[in-house]
Amino acid sequence: xxxxxxxxxxxxxxxVLKGIxxxxxxxxxxxxxxxxxxxxxxxxxxxxxxxTPTSGQIDIEGTAITDPKTDIARVRQRIxxxxxxxxxxxxxxxxxxxxxxxxxxxxxTAQEARSKAKELLARVGLSDKADSYPSRLSGGQKQxxxxxxxxxxxxxxxxxDEPTSALDPEMVKEVLTVIRSxxxxxxxxxxxxxxxxxxxxxxxxxxxxxxGKLVERTKPEQFFTKPQSExxxxxxxxxx
Amino acid sequence: MNRKRLRIxxxxxxxxxxxxxxxxxxxxxxxxxxxxxxxxxxxxxxxxQKKKLIxxxxxxxxxxxxxxxxxxxxxxxxxxxxxxxxxxQLGYELEIANIDFNGLIAALQTGRVDFVMSAxxxxxxxxxxxxxxxxxYAARNTIVSKKSAPLATEASxxxxxxxxxxxxxxxxxxxxxEGAVLxxxxxxxxxxxxxxxxxxxxxxxxxxxxxEMTNSNPELAMNFLPAESADNGYAIAFxxxxxxxxxxxxxxxxxxxxxxxxxxxxxxFAEEETSSGALLGLNIDFSILKDYIPYILKxxxxxxxxTLVSALFGLVWGTILSLFKISGIKPLEWFATAYTSxxxxxxxLVQLTIIxxxxxxxxxxxxxxxxAAGLAFGLNSAAYLxxxxxxxxxxxxKGQREAAIALGIPYRKMMIRIIFPxxxxxxxxxxxxxCVALLKESSLVSVIGVSDLMRRADVVRSDxxxxxxxxxxxxxxxxVLVLILTSFARKLERRLRRSD
Lengths: 240, 500
Hints:
The complex is a heterodimer. By secondary structure, chain A is an alpha/beta fold. Helix content of chain A is 38%, strand content 25%. Chain A has 2 domains: 2-78 and 156-239, P-loop containing nucleotide triphosphate hydrolases (Rossmann fold, 3-Layer(aba) Sandwich), CATH 3.40.50.300; 89-154, ABC transporter ATPase  like domain (ABC transporter ATPase like fold), CATH 1.20.1580.10. Chain A has 9 helices and 10 strands. Chain A starts with a strand and ends with a helix. Helix content of chain B is 54%, strand content 13%. In chain B, the strands form 4 sheets. Chain B has a 5-stranded mixed β-sheet. Chain B has a 4-stranded mixed β-sheet with strand order 1-6-2-7. Chain B has a 3-stranded antiparallel β-sheet with strand order 3-4-5, sandwiched between helices. At the A-B interface, helix 2, strand 6, helix 3 and helix 5 of A face helix 14 and helix 15 of B.
């Protein structure tokens, strides 16, 4: 579904991604793990072109999104993204946050968009917050709204960029539960995370990145019990 | 909910504008001094069509020309009557434009007006720029000084501070007085004020004006200077090589012969106004304003309309410029930066005057004063606002843009619906400041004759020959307007902060 060939990204002289080649299948849940500065987030942000790759190619269902002629906005409609800091629109209520893009981009009527939004709010357990402003929500609630907002566009792929890193510990679980149920529903997902337990339970594949390279690409069981590389072993030693 | 809120703001803005427009017919807009007088004469030009002539005058010089602020608000005076008579004899339609005295020659040269009658003497200096008719009135120079320190002769002025009206004949005459220290002021009422406050020892004006000055200010005394030459005669000014000079001269000499000119002169000089007598110990008498209040208050509408138009124009154009600045497209960025630099780096008054006087010459379009003013203020304010708005946009969290992009929201929608509403909240205080500044600086437009609050105050000052009362009154009006504006802004701010 996603084919990535020799992807590199440099910020000035700083080479962040040094040639990554991989394939993500439909319905596959990938957890991206690695030390900070290893290029996980940059890799994720290249997949919806929030960062423009320096070289290499990314194909999503046969569309070369790295081709400048591709209408990237259309591709992005099919790729949901959840950020570490939520980025809800602060001047809109929860329900307006969710209905905005479906109405403005996909042309849904207000009625269609609202009923869809209410469904999604029920799914993330926030039906009672529809008319609240984001400033009234806790971090965990904000992140669940952000997930609902992305899902409202009915994406084929979901990208999560450290979705629980900015949360207080007691709120991590409520967000992971939502992501977990999404993973179980068969959504193709890439998740940058530091939650090792979650990665081990929810992911189909672990990508271990270090120094801009995809060092390991294995099943969770194998990665957490018998890491192949010495760098992964050292990393796991530090975090577990 | 956000849409509803924005809609409320839009609606209230629209309602406000509609209200203003609806009220419009009750208040005359634009220049009070611009009204048409249809000529009654049957002696129309050969073409049979009535041609319109525009006359420039500085209506702050009774009895020659002044605004009848107590009555119709029209411009009246001896010059006006003479002009009406001549144009009607020649079969022209007459329109009068009220322009500051020192802008009259420029108005002739730029073709804004066809001729000027404004108690203007035909000096050699002026003859270099314009053509004059025969003289129609000769006035004497007169010294006005405080009764307590009277100055009667030219010799007594040596070493004294002497005030004159900038650009007037007396201004030229005063330059020839030996030892006098000259101070040139824009208006007759300024001279009175300076006399009263002791900043000048004497003012040199012409006889008719001196009579009115001393009538309404009992503490002032006047002394006529001997009429030395025919130089002081008043004549009608025309652009160089104007074809209508001869026609006008013909009617003038007719008028001199048949006594029509004398009749008009008598009509305006006969009434010796009885002193209103500010006999109170305090030299401030607000009761003089009584009859002028409706006239002054009409200026509120002009001032508000002007502020609204220039603020909206400035906001829209400033937003476009700020988008240029962050566009990443080099030529647009350079343009916006150069624009800001020029408009911030030159005085607003200069820009205003250039736009008003240069537009007819450069684009052959006779730009109305109110439009020139709105344009100048809008263009100027856009330069400042573009920086403010740019700052506001930059201050919006980068994540907002990324979230919008990730959702596939197109640029325009993202800017209008996501970024601007958040930027607006940050920059609202700065926007309010800009509006307050515009409202107050709008008083500058009086120099090109827009009849805003300040212009009307000037008219009343020249009518009553008293300044402090009028100035305090309009200052109070400006202050109240600013208070209303800021309280409106506070409400808006509270509404925008509802999401916190």
